């Protein structure tokens, strides 16, 4: 798997790299619905680890012609 995010980096809301998977509002909706990538809530700050983002992206990978998700 190719990593879309740096494995050892932490990403915070407003980080432009997070726009790759969704805007700030979409990420908030996913958190509210207990969907999307794993995250840490430290007080009011939301932090995503690069390793968690890559794992989530890999789990949602689709290979057309092979019956959908891998």
What does this 3D model show about the protein?
The protein is 27% helix and 21% strand. The protein is an alpha+beta fold. The protein has one domain. Strands 1-3-2 form a 3-stranded antiparallel beta sheet. A two-stranded antiparallel sheet has the order 4-5. Strand 2 and strand 3 form a beta hairpin. It is globular. The model has no long low-confidence stretch (mean pLDDT 92).
Give the tags:
MerR family transcriptional regulator; 3-stranded antiparallel sheet; 70 residues; 2 helices; globular; 5 strands; alpha+beta
Briefly summarize what is shown.
The chain is α+β, with helices and mostly antiparallel strands.
Q: What is the topology, as strand order, of the major beta sheet?
A: 1-3-2
* Relative helix content: 25-40%
Q: How many whole angstroms does the radius of gyration measure?
A: 13 Å
Could you tell me how far the N terminus lies from the C terminus, measured between alpha carbons in angstroms? Answer: 12 Å
**Beta strands, count:** 5
Strand content: 15-25%
Q: How many domains comprise the coordinates?
A: 1
Protein name: MerR family transcriptional regulator
Organism: Tritonibacter scottomollicae (Epibacterium scottomollicae)
């Amino acid at each position: 798997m190719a990593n879309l995010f740096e494995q050892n980096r932490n990403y915070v809301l407003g980080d432009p790299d997070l726009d790759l998977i969704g805007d700030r509002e979409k990420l908030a909706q996913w958190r509210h619905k207990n969907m999307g990538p794993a995250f840490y809530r430290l007080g009011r700050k939301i932090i995503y680890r690069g390793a968690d983002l890559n794992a989530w992206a890999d789990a949602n990978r689709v290979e057309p012609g092979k019956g959908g998700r891998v």
